[in-house]
Amino acid sequence: MNADQAVELLQSAAWTMLTIGAPILGAVVAVSLCVGILQAATQVHDPTVNSVPRLLLGVLCLIWLLPWMASRLLEYTQESFDGVTRFF
To answer: For each of the chain's 88 residues, which pLDDT tens digit applies?
Structure first.
């Protein structure tokens, strides 16, 4: 395995990580923004008001997206193993 192949493998890993994590992170950021606007409008600045919706939405998104995430990880793993055997 040369340096170009190793870089390609690492780029594929980084891209897979970003595509798997982005939907959950995007949903949590969106709900955090909405709760922040609501807190600013009502002047309720309790930390749990912001933490609980983010936690619940993150867990719900994880449960909902878990089959898709597992299939993406399985696909990446198969491509990686195929790539390693192709390199040697």
So the answer is: 678 878 888 899 999 999 999 999 999 999 999 998 998 898 888 887 888 989 999 999 999 999 999 999 999 999 888 877 776 6
Buried b (16+ CB within 10 A) or exposed e, 56-67: ebeeebeeeeee
Task: Give the DSSP H or E segment for 59.
Answer: helix 47-87
Using CA atoms, how far residue 58 sits from 1, 12, 16, 37, 88, in Å, is 38, 25, 19, 19, 41
Q: What's the half-sphere exposure (Cβ side, CA atoms, 13 Å) at 41? A: 6
pTM: 0.76
